C-alpha cells in the first residue's frame, strides 16, 4: 500500500510540474487575477461625476456645494444653468448625479423653513445610485448638525460612528481575500477534474486498473498534490494581501489548516466532476457550470444577506460560503477556532459525502 | 466565397452540435441559470439589516430612537444586549451588522439641550454595504433632535430606475455578459476539437477555403448565441419586469452584431491553440472572467484606476453593456448610442481579420 | 485539366521539410505517373506522413519544389487541394455524423452535383459494403468500416490523385481486403494512388515502392526490383539445435535480423557485405543453410539503416525464471467455461470455453468487433462476465480481482502510457504500482529495460518516441512484476516489420521462460508465431488448435495461407446466417 501510494504521488507530482498550461492558470489566478481585481473592482463610489445647478447663488448654497465636492464619492462635472440641462447630461452619461439647489435656500434657512435640495440620480446602476443617495443624505445631515450647533444652542442626538474590522471602509481587504478564496476554489476543482479525465482519455486509467492500485489510492494520489500546491500557492497570495495592507489579525496556522479543509471539499467537487464526465470538454464545461453559480452565491461579490431567503439556504451547500467566513474572520476579525469551528465542521460535512459519491460512481462506472 | 461549401460546413457543424447533448444543455441552460442567479442573488440593496441594540439609558427617548431605526425600513431589530461584551461577540459572530449603543443619560441630555452622543458600531468587512448602513444610521440619528433647528430636506429623485431595483440594472448588463461568457467557450472548442481528432486535415485537403471554413463554423454558434440573447431578453422583460424604453428592433440588431463579435473571439482563440484544454482555459481568462468583472456590469468602471479603465476597453462586453443599459433603461437611440455600436463594429471586423489571417490551411 | 496525357501526376525536385533543426523530409526527387499505385514504406519516423502532407499541399516545403497535377504545391496550393483526395492517418471523419451525412458533407464541400453524387454514392457504398449502415453514426462503426467510409468520402469527387496515409492501420484482414479491392478498381480506372504503409503485403501490391529512411528516399522501384536488390542477403537455417544457431547469429556482425519461423530460422544479412564466410561455416555445423527468395519484409529489414543494429541482432536471453510468482501456478494458466458477456441486446462474447497451458503463446484472431478485446478484458478482471466462469493463473476472475492483478500483465491496444513522463519515470511508476520498492524496483526496471531494448532511453520523453519504441515500453511496463499470464491486445498494429520481428522474438523468449502469453492480432502472418490459435467470429470461438490442425480441419478445401484458413472458417460459420454483421 505504502509503495504504491508513494509511486502514485511521485508520478502525480512530476506530471503536475510538467503541465505548463495548468501551472500558468494557477499562477495567473493566484497572482495577476487577484491584483487586477483588487485594484479595479469596487462597489465603493469614488469621483462620481456630479453636475450642479445652483439657482440660489448665495453663501449657503455654495457651502453645500463645497461640502459635496470635497468628499471622495463626488467629483464636479460642471455647473449647469437649469435642471433641463442636467437632465440631458444624465441622459448622455456625462454626469451620473445632479444636485439642484432651489432659489431662496438661504432665505428659507434664515426664516426657519425647511427648504428641499433636489438630487437627480442616474439609477441605471442601482448600487451606485443607492450609495450616492446615502452619501448625499450624510453630507446634508452633517451640514445641518454643524449649523444647528452654531446657530441654535439647543442641540440634539449626535451620532458617533465606529466602523470595526475595516475602519477605512475600503473594499480592498474584502476583494483581495475574496479573490484568494475564488482562486483556491477554481484550482481545487479544475485540476483534479482535468487530470483524472485526461487519464480516462489516454486510456492509462485502464492500465492502472490491471495493477493492484485501488480506487481509494488513486483518489488520494489525485488529491494530495492539488492540496499541497493549493496551500503553497496561497503564500504568494499572502504577500499580495500584505502588500495591499490587509491586516492578519488571527492565526496563520489556523488559516492554513482551514484552507486545507476548504481545498479538500473543492477537490471533492472536482473528483465528482471527473467521475461523471468522459471527456475533458465535458469535465471543463461541468466545472464551469458548477463554479460560477457557486462563486456568485457565496458572498464573494455581494453579501449573502441581501439574497432572497431560498438562495441563502442554497448557498449553505457551497463550501466557498463557509470559507469566506473563515478568511474574512481570520484576517479582519481575528477570529479563532472557537468562532470558526462550525465552519470547519461544515466543510468536512460537505466534502465527505462528495468523495463518497465520487468513489461510488467511479467504482460502478468502471466495473 | 462559395456559398454551397459554406452551407455544407454549416450543416455538418450544426448536426455535430445537436448530437452533443451536454454542450447543447450547457449552451441553453447556463444563460438562464446566470440570469436567475444575478436577478436574485446579486444585490447590494440595503434592506432589513440585522441591528443589535445596547440601551443603557432605558428611557422613552432611547426607545424612540431605536424605534426610528426600525421604522426607516432599512433596519431590523435582531437582538437587544445587556453588556458591551455581548455586542462585540454578536458582531464577531456575524449575528448583527450594526449595533446601536445608547449611553446612560441620553434623555436627560436631550432635555437639557446638550449634545447627546450615540455610538454606532458597524461591521466594515463588506465595505460597500457598510458605507450605506453607516450613512443611513447616521442620518437617522442626526435627524433625531429638537424641533427648533432649521432643517434642510433632500428630495432625491432617481431616474431610469426609480425604485433602485438591482434587477433593473443587472438584466440589461447581463445581456452583454452572458454573450461574452459562453459562446466563445463553446466556439473555442469547435476548431480545437477538429485539430485533436485530425479531421481538420480532411478540410485542409479539400476545396474549402479558410474563410469558407471559418464562416461555416461561425454560423451555428452565432445562431445558438442569438437564441441565448433572445431567451435572456424575453425572460428578462417578462419574468423580471424590466422596462424596455428603447427600440426592441435596435436592441436585437446590435445584439446580432455583438454575437458575431463574441463568437468571432471564440474562433480566434481556437485558431491559436492546439488542444481543447488550452482553448478552454484561454477562453476562461480572456472572455469569461473579464466579461463578469471588467464590463461595468457589476463594478462601475469610473471607480477603477485609469490603466485598468483602459484594460476594460480590450473587451467588447463593456461597449455592449453601455449600449444595452442606455437603450433599455434610458430609452436612448442611435443618436446617443452610435459610438458604442461603431466600436463594436470595428472590434468585430478586427477579430475576423485576425482569425482569417491566423487560420492557415496547413498542418504546420 | 492542365495536365497533358501521359505526363507525370507528381513531380518533386529536391523536396524537403524542416521542423526546427530536424529535416523530416530531405532531397526527395520523385516522378509518379498517371494511374500508378505508388507505395511509401519505411521505419517509424522516416518521413512518410510528412511527405504525403507535402504532396497534398497542406504543408509548405522548406526546400525544393513540387508540382502535383501540374500545379505548384506552394504557390497554387488551393488548386491542388481542391482536386485531390487525401486520407490522413487515424480516424478523421466526424464521428457524430452518420455514414450518409459524412458522405454528403464530402460531396457538398467538393461541389459534386446531387445527381452525380446519388449515382456515385450507390456505387461506393456497394463496393465498401456499407449500404445497410447509412444511418449509423461513424463513431460506432468498426475500425475497418470507418476506414472504408473515409476512403469513400475521398472518392466521391473521383479525384485524379488519391493520397493515403496508412489506410490499413487498425483494420482487420477482411476489411483490408475490401479496401484494396476498391483501390485497385479505381487504380484501373486511371486514378493515381500514393499510399504510406507498414504492411509489406500492401507494398507488394503497389506498382512501385519508395523506401524512406531518415527523410530520404534510399531505394525506389517495382517490388521485384527492390527484392532483386537484396538477393543473396536472405537465408534460412534448418537445425535441430536452434539455440546454437541463434547464438551464432547473435554473435555475427552483419546479421540485421533473425526470425523464428515454423521449423526454420530466417535471417537477413547486410546486402552490401553479404554472408561472412566464418558464419556460413559455423552455421553449417549445426544445420542446413539455404539462400531464400527475399520478401518485401526482408527488403525492409535490409534497407532500414537508421535502426540500431546492436539491439536488433542481440539474442533474447532470459536470466532465471521470469515468472517469479509462478511457482505455484497450476498447469492450466487460463480456464474459461461458457464465458459470456452481453451489452444490452448485443452479445459480445458468446459461451467461450478455453484452456491455455503455462508457457503457451495463444493467438486470438478475428475481425474487428469479433469479441477478442471483450474476452481479454474479462480475463483481466476489467469487465465482469454476464455468464460462465474464468480462472486465470489459478485465481477466480470475479472473486479476487486484486489478487489476480498481481499475477497478470496487460498491454492494451493503445499502449496507454503517460506521454508527459519519461521512459524511466513510466517504468518506475508502474513498478511501484505493483508494490515493488527500493532495490527490488531498480532491479526490475533495469532487467526489463535490458530485455526490451530500452537501455539508455530512460530520460527520453514518451511523447517523442516512435511507435515501435512506445510499444516496447508498453510491454516493459506490463512485465515489471513477472506476471504469470501476459495479455497483449493488438501489440503490433502500426509497427514496422523489423520492430515486429524483434517483438515476437521477445514474446518467444518470455514464453520459453514459462510466461503464458495471450495475444490478439490482425496480422495473420503473426499467427505463425503462436503455439495455438483461437478464431473468433461474432463473439463465438469458431475454431481452436494449432495451425496445421486447423488446416487439416478444412477437409477438401485448398487453404494455403493463414488468411485462407481464417476466411474458410468464417465462411463456414456464416453459412445459413445473414452475412455482414461487422458493426460493433
What can you see in these coordinates?
The complex is a heterotrimer of chains A (367), B (364) and C (584). With 367 residues, chain A is α/β, with parallel strands linked by helices. Helices cover 69% and strands 9% of the residues of chain A. Chain A has a 4-stranded mixed sheet with strand order 2-1-3-4, sandwiched between helices. In chain A, helix 7 runs antiparallel to helix 9, helix 7 packs antiparallel against helix 13 and helix 9 crosses helix 10. The longest helix of chain A is centred in the middle third of the chain and has 31 residues. The radius of gyration of chain A is 28 Å and the shape is elongated. Chain B is elongated. Chain B has 2 domains: 234 residues, no CATH class; 94 residues, 3-Layer(aba) Sandwich (abc type-2 transporter like fold), CATH 3.40.1710. Chain B is an alpha/beta fold. In chain B, helix 7 packs antiparallel against helix 12. In chain B, strand 1, helix 3 and strand 2 form a beta-alpha-beta unit. By secondary structure, chain C is an alpha/beta fold. Chain C folds into 3 domains: 214 residues, P-loop containing nucleotide triphosphate hydrolases (Rossmann fold); 87 residues, Alpha-Beta Plaits; 146 residues, Rossmann fold (3-Layer(aba) Sandwich), CATH 3.40.50. In chain C, helix 4 packs antiparallel against helix 5, helix 9 runs antiparallel to helix 10 and helix 15 crosses helix 16. The N terminus and C terminus of chain C are likely disordered. Chains in contact: A-B, A-C, B-C.
Roughly how many Å is the radius of gyration of chain B? 28 Å
Query: Quick one: overall form of chain B?
Result: elongated
**Uncertain segments of chain B:** 146-150
In CATH, what is the homologous superfamily of the largest domain in chain C?
P-loop containing nucleotide triphosphate hydrolases
> How far from one another are the termini of chain C?
43 Å
Number of helices of chain B: 15
Secondary structure tally, helices of chain C? 20
Question: What's the story with the biggest beta sheet of chain B?
Answer: 4 strands, mixed
**Radius of gyration of chain C using CA atoms only:** 25 Å
Mean pLDDT of chain B: 83
CATH topology of the largest domain in chain C: Rossmann fold
